[in-house]
Specification:
mainly alpha; two-stranded antiparallel sheet; 13 helices; 4 strands
């Protein structure tokens, strides 16, 4: 009997060890091949500025009341209070220790497209790398070149405030297996070239789906309800449905959408508020062609019922 118990105990230990090894393997951070980074030329600053504003970097990493005439001060510090805990936007200025001034292009590319820090840790998806993974690597190089022109800002942002089990970063490797992919969300084979250009901006750097799409219990985006609106990650409000089936913006013309992205004014003479006001500060810096492309894509996506509960 004692021998049987010892064998069972040994078997349990071996199974646990094997399970731990499998978990460690599956959750290992993945990086972009060094050859892919080495093949990139020097980034273009002007193109990188376009990516910076398409990506809305300043919305989370710069002070809300910053002077738009001054270079962005990317000190971070914005607190995102969610059901998973409080996430704090880091300093991404060119400060060599408090920010990312010491990062290489490979560091930025791996952070944006693989969600991996320079020291090999998983980033939390409050940093929308699941969208940035759809960007062209050359556009990341351009963004890197532009960010190198921005000022260094002293002061490290506070750490995230997360409880167990969300404070265990290694487990994010499993989450990434389900949610991190460079493939487009929608197949738009018959769409216009303008709509396809908008698809790249919306699904990639613009990361519009990160707020406008419902999420599952793990925090992953429900792609079957793409852009259908969602319960806001913070507070008790909702983020609107922006598909053609929306009861509000779904009735807007392509030119209405483009104008809203430029000025923040709706066809009903209302104006963008809340988090969308910060988004418009960025989309307003894009070209008319880019805003028209985004609008064309939003008119081409499938209509969806609202992805949030009806008001009672």
């Amino acid at each position: 009997m004692a021998g049987t118990v010892r064998k069972l105990a040994a078997g349990v230990v071996l199974l646990a060890a094997a399970g731990g090894a499998v978990f460690w393997f599956l959750t290992a951070p993945e990086r972009i091949p060094e050859a892919d980074i080495a093949a990139l030329g020097a980034g273009d600053v002007a193109r990188g500025e376009r990516m910076f504003y398409a990506g809305g970097c300043a919305s989370c990493h710069a002070a809300a009341q910053a002077d738009p005439a001054e270079p962005p001060q990317l000190a971070g510090g914005l607190r995102l209070v969610t059901d998973f805990g409080t996430f704090v936007a880091p300093n991404i200025s060119q400060h060599p220790t408090d920010g990312i001034g010491g990062w290489s292009l490979a560091d930025l590319a791996n952070a944006m497209q693989k969600g991996v820090s320079p020291d090999g840790r998983h980033y939390y998806p409050s940093f929308p790398y699941t969208s940035y993974a759809r960007m062209k690597l050359a556009d990341v190089a351009d963004l890197y070149a532009f960010m190198k022109t921005l000022p260094a800002v002293e002061g490290r942002a506070p750490d995230h405030e997360l409880g167990f089990p969300f404070n265990i970063r290694r487990g994010l490797g499993l989450w990434k297996l389900l949610n991190l992919s460079p493939e487009p969300v929608l197949a738009l084979a018959d769409a216009s070239e303008q709509a396809k250009a908008g698809q790249y901006l919306v699904e990639g750097p613009g990361h519009c789906g990160e707020c406008h799409t419902p999420r599952d219990l793990s925090g992953g985006i429900r792609k079957s309800e793409w852009l259908a609106g969602a319960v806001a990650a913070e507070g008790d409000g909702v983020v609107p449905n922006i598909t053609p089936e929306s009861s509000s913006s779904g009735q807007w013309s392509q030119s209405d959408i483009a104008e809203f992205l430029k000025s923040g004014f709706t066809p009903e003479f209302d104006s963008a508020g809340g988090a969308m006001a910060a988004v418009v500060k960025n989309t307003g810096r894009l070209s008319d062609d880019d805003r028209a492309a985004i609008a064309a894509y939003l008119k081409a996506v499938p209509g969806r019922p609202n992805g949030f509960p009806a008001k009672k």
